[in-house]
Structure formats: structure tokens, C-alpha cells
Write a structure and sequence with these properties.
With 282 residues, the chain is of the alpha/beta class. It is built from eleven helices and 13 strands.
């Protein structure tokens, strides 16, 4: 009987050190900038990505992982080991990557390969990956690991301050008038995830008020927050993320955090100046 291997993709926005410690292997969504193709977080760091889009004023585009990439890796594991695979995918509401993996699974070995739609993005997705990997390391069965994953997917909350109205406008998520007014009036859009898709929640004037509102939403929706592993992310503003982390510590007494920078796969759609918090509801 082989072991259980956890796979994810780079849209989970976890640092390499965390992934290595948890023995999680990544597939890579690609990002195109001025006809150059990069694998986000592999040959293009978040810092380099935000510098490039600021200097070149371009709209980066992303591409889902094709079935062939999954097929090659899945076949290698199936042929060389007795291991089983659980691949937790970037939200199907934002990418076709989940469906690509399902195609590859069905072509290779659907009995030993499980593909799960995280319905999440960035560190919210990453927290589910962490929970799955820790469940494997603790010796839980495949069925028990899947149950942990599904519980996290049902309960994970994504609450975020959108950094760049222009990126949302280009991506077709808001109109040109809303984008112009938002930038002009220093309006910050707070959004959340509903069934794996980004949905607007409310608008707040100024980033300080928006950060405070994040905490109030955590208080309204969270379950036993002080005992949780809390996720915080940012795009090109580490100091801002640490400020949010400190606010959460002060208000709730939390001690366990994952703080990470949003990579190009997500940053291509939300731009610089985005901040998010991730936690579990009841």
C-alpha cells in the first residue's frame, strides 16, 4: 500500500518553504506579459510581477493548466509507485484548471486519483492545502483526509479589499464608471467568495476603514477565531499585511498565521494593494 500524495497549484499562494515542509507538490498556472510566458511563483516571483506591471502598464493574462501536464505527472506516479493522489484545485469558478485535472484523472486512473475543487483562491485555498497535508502527515486515511478537505471548503471565508479597480474593469467584473469613481473617491471595494466566485460585498471609504471592516466581518462570521490558523495576504504591501495581522492579534488574540504575497495568477486580476483575510465559519 502506497502513501497519499497531496498536489495543489500555484494559485494557493503558499511559500515554497511551507510547501516543502508539508511535502506538497505544485502544478503551475502560466501568466503572459507582453507575449512572454511565465510560470507564476516558479520563474516569476510576486515582487517581479508587480514591478513589471507597474513599469510596463500592461494587462497580464493567465492560462489554465492543460490536461496533458496533469496526465504526465499522474502517469508517472501511477507507473512508478503504489501511491494515491489527491489534487486540490484552484476554484473552478475562476479557472478551467479543475476541469483539466478531471480529464487527466479519467484518462489515467480515477480509482487512485482524486481531484477536488477547492472553490477557493490564494491563501484561503492554501489553508485547505495545509489542513490536507497535515492530515496526511498525521497518518489519516484517504477518506479521512478528503473529509477534512471538504469540511474546510464548506467553512472557509475569503474577505478581501480590492486594490485596483482598473484591473477589475479590464477583467469585466465592474464597469468603467464604477472604476473611475472608485479611484477618484478613494472607495475600497470589500468582496468575498460565494460558491467559488468573487462577489462584491460592500464599499468603504479609505483603506483604514476597510481594514477595520474586515475585522468586524471576521467577528460576525468566524467560529472560535483565537484557536484558528488565520490567513492574511497582500499584493505588493507586506507592511500593510502585517498591520492587518497585528489588528487581528489585538482584537482576537490569534497566534497562528499564514502571511503570503499574492502571486501573478491571482494578482493579474486584482492588482497591487489588495489585502485579504481567511478564516473558518461555523
Amino acid at each position: 500500500m502506497g502513501k497519499i500524495r497531496i498536489y495543489a497549484d500555484n494559485a494557493c499562494d503558499l511559500d515554497n518553504e511551507v510547501l516543502q515542509e508539508l511535502e506538497v507538490k505544485l502544478f503551475y498556472i502560466t501568466v503572459t506579459i507582453n507575449d512572454a510566458i511565465y510560470k507564476d511563483r516558479l520563474d516569476l516571483s510576486p515582487t517581479e510581477f508587480y514591478r513589471m506591471i507597474a513599469e510596463k502598464d500592461v494587462l497580464p493574462t493567465t492560462a489554465q493548466i492543460p490536461p496533458g501536464e496533469f496526465q504526465i505527472e499522474f502517469e508517472k506516479v501511477m507507473q512508478e509507485t503504489d501511491d494515491e493522489i489527491i489534487y486540490i484545485a484552484f476554484s473552478s469558478g475562476l479557472s478551467g484548471t479543475y476541469h483539466s485535472a478531471c480529464i487527466a484523472r479519467d484518462m489515467v486512473n480515477p480509482e487512485r486519483i482524486t481531484v477536488i475543487d477547492s472553490k477557493s483562491a490564494s491563501v484561503g485555498y492554501g489553508l485547505t492545502v495545509i489542513r490536507a497535508a497535515k492530515a496526511v502527515q498525521s497518518g489519516k486515511s484517504k477518506e479521512e483526509v478528503i473529509a477534512e478537505i471538504e469540511d474546510n471548503i464548506r467553512r472557509i471565508q475569503h474577505i478581501f479589499i480590492v486594490g485596483n479597480f482598473e484591473m477589475l474593469k479590464r477583467g469585466g467584473r465592474i464597469g468603467a464608471t464604477s472604476a473611475a469613481l472608485g479611484n477618484l473617491l478613494n472607495v475600497k471595494l470589500i468582496a468575498h467568495f460565494v460558491d467559488g466566485k468573487i462577489m462584491p460585498l460592500e464599499k468603504v471609504h479609505g483603506v483604514k476603514k476597510a481594514r477595520k471592516r474586515l475585522l468586524r466581518i471576521m467577528e460576525e462570521r468566524g467560529d472560535n477565531i483565537p484557536e484558528q490558523l488565520i490567513g492574511v495576504n497582500h499584493s505588493d504591501d507586506y507592511a500593510g499585511a502585517i498591520e492587518i495581522q497585528n489588528l487581528i492579534k489585538k482584537k482576537f488574540g490569534c497566534q497562528d498565521f499564514v502571511v503570503s504575497e499574492i502571486g501573478a495568477a491571482i494578482g493579474a486580476h486584482v492588482g497591487a494593494g489588495t489585502y485579504s483575510v481567511f478564516f473558518l465559519t461555523k
